[in-house]
Amino acid sequence: MxxxxxxxxxxxxxxxxLLLIPNSSDIQIETKGEETPFVWNQDERWNDLxxxxxxxxxxxSTEIESMVDAGIVSINNLLEEFEKESFEATDQRLDLxxxxxxxxxxYVAAQANQDPRFxxxxxxxxxxxxxxxxxxxxxxxxxxAALYKVLFGMRATVEEVLLQSKNxxxxxxxxxxxxxxxxxxxxxxxxxxxxxxxxSRGGAExxxxxxxxxxxxxxxSHVALIYVDAxxxxxxxxxxxxxxxxxxxxxxxxxxxxxxxxxxxxxxxDLPELEANPMLPHLAAKDMFEEVQxxxxxxxxxxxxxxxxxxxxxxxxxxAYKNRGIKLWxxxxxxxxxxxxxxxxxxxxxxxxxQMPSDLEYDPKLSVVAEWRDAEALYExxxxxxxxxxxxxxxxxxxxxxxxxxxxxxxxxxxxxxxVQNLRGKEGPVPEGMNATQALKSDAFINRHAELxxxxxxxxxxxxxxxxxxxxxxxxxxxxxxxxxxxxNQE
Length: 491
Known about the structure:
The structure is a single chain. The chain is α+β, with helices and mostly antiparallel strands and 491 residues long. The chain has three domains: 125 residues, Up-down Bundle (Methane Monooxygenase Hydroxylase, Chain G, domain 1); 200 residues, endopeptidase fold (from Nostoc punctiforme); 103 residues, no CATH class. It is 51% helix and 12% strand. It is globular, with a radius of gyration of 24 Å. It starts with a helix and ends with a helix.
């Protein structure tokens, strides 16, 4: 009897020891090699703008309005110049446009009722720049950097202004009336067409990582393809979920999934492929809609857009259009930061020349039709991003988030249960395609983010109470990086 107990304990100990061994992470990582992340390097400028905002807040309203009027006139005059003829990405007036927009922002942010013309010139600038960028070679890093700097820079500026607003924010922004002949319907106050692409941002830690984890950090983490039934005009959204792979959602289900913002993108009507067949976007969406009914498509954690057996969110749209002769992501997304690579690999990503959701905005084949944002979630969006950026800085310094490997055997049992659920066509606690070690590491990442988020949120609230305004993003990031402690560790 004693021998049986002894052998049983020994067997269990050996089994437990074997289950403690992490899955190997020795993988071939694909990168282009010559790419580098975009860096603003304008910390002094941001601080100067904040100081200007603090001074403007004490000025007379008539003085503020006078400065806003002058700034808007100057920017509109510049945009009129741009509209007269096409221009290159190297045109120095783009820097002038962005700088004037930066300088106008503190005055608008200080207004009791923020001037709507400020937001209108942002949309006008987007239309002008997107139109001219059709002729640009976005495969050149300098071109992509110029396009990103002005479009992302203006969006970030608008949101800094909105975060200081005491009034209700209009959630819908109409940008371009891009014609389409495909079936249409209205979603959340926006007319959408079959074949449109929705890039969005969810309210989760991984969403923040995907949106920021890019050589060109952005605002979007997810892509869905819209299919509108030609007979019923009902909209369906085809999207890849980490938990269940590629699936079809109703409009209500899509919004209930915790979207903080989304942008509607539409193929340009003057593309040769659409001039030959205006219904092509609808057919591409229908192809994907029918394929999802015919086979189970698991989520592609590796982010390999060359293999359609499994798909990540961007791949759903790119695969559908590629099969109809249109290549989206004119310039492939690159992830060259070792810190970003290390964190994304936590979730199983192996391809770092890929298709990131945020980069779709800069594709010259697509027009920005409209945007929707949840005003109440705008603060959360910035808080999540600030913490992620601090965590990426730590990862760049090779500061690891260490999971509790002692519970790995238990996670492996949960993974086994999940596999059984997957075979029954159901979701399990550990997503299909993610191994137990990756699940353990991702859980540690999420817990660390939640810890830093709580501390940073408290710092921000204290700042707001003391200064009587919400700190701008660079202040939020500074709080997050101080809480992360990597700066002190490096010193």
